[in-house]
């Protein structure tokens, strides 16, 4: 048999998208999966638009990319609304299936019931944004971590063998369950170590008012970007 290269990043994107869809939406898996695919396309189009020569009015022009991005934005807004409304009806009817969305909605509905006149609880728009956040951050960060872990393990075959031996010792040829995961001490250690030199995310913050940061004075509404990749390699920190 011959050999061929496999793009593990794509494979892990599909894997994490499937896992998050099932864990977050349960029986609404297909609709959840569609949200994942649309957000993935939206991210690709955004990066594509950022790489082109930019001027202030470009994003308002009816270009093919801009029209597609607006369409995706409407879809990503309407799909969670339908899923949430459907899930709320099931919950009010006594359906107690536990997935992330159900648990989130139950907690929010209880908060509204307990504090009827105080404006407590989250609005539909807030719930939708939380769902989108779970999808985008959870899928992207986990995909990056798994991909980088495969690269690092390929660079250090002895640790790859140790991790494989631990998995076989804990789970054998069976599919790992939740209790098995707690026994994978070395695998957990490897993942944590990969995140140290190769962090999967960065820190982005926006100043709400004039802020003093060290010897710098930052005005209101300045966006700050911190690369954990550089911070973890700074020998003076």
Automatic annotation (TrEMBL):
Membrane topology annotation: Single-pass membrane protein
Essential cofactor(s): heme
InterPro entries: Cyt_P450, Cyt_P450_sf, Cytochrome_P450_Monooxygen
Keywords: Heme, Iron, Membrane, Metal-binding, Monooxygenase, Oxidoreductase, Transmembrane, Transmembrane helix
Location(s) in or outside the cell: Membrane
Coiled coil: none
GO molecular function term, any single one: monooxygenase activity
Any one Pfam family match given in the protein's UniProt record, by short name: p450
GO cellular component, as recorded: membrane
Family from the record: Belongs to the cytochrome P450 family.
Protein name: Cytochrome P450
Source species taxonomy: Eukaryota, Viridiplantae, Streptophyta, Embryophyta, Tracheophyta
């Amino acid at each position: 048999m011959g050999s061929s290269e496999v793009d593990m990043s794509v494979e892990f994107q599909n894997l994490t998208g499937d896992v998050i869809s099932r864990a977050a939406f349960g029986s609404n898996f297909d609709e959840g999966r569609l949200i994942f695919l649309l957000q993935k396309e939206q991210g690709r189009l955004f990066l594509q638009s950022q790489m082109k020569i930019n001027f202030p009015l470009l994003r308002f022009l009816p270009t093919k990319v801009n029209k597609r991005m607006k369409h995706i934005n409407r879809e990503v807004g309407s799909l969670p609304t339908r899923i949430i409304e459907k899930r709320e009806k099931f919950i009010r009817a006594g359906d107690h299936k536990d997935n992330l969305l159900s648990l989130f909605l139950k907690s929010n509905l209880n908060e509204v019931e307990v504090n009827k006149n105080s404006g407590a609880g989250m609005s539909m728009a807030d719930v939708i944004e939380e769902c989108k956040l779970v999808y985008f951050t959870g899928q992207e960060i986990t995909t990056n971590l798994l991909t980088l872990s495969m690269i690092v393990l390929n660079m250090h075959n002895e640790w790859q063998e140790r991790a494989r031996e631990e998995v076989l010792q804990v789970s054998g040829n069976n599919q790992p369950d939740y209790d098995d995961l707690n026994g994978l001490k070395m695998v957990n250690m490897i993942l944590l170590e990969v995140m140290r030199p190769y962090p999967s995310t960065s820190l982005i913050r926006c100043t709400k008012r004039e802020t003093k940061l060290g010897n710098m004075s930052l005005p209101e509404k300045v966006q700050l970007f911190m690369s954990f990749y550089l911070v973890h390699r700074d020998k003076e920190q």
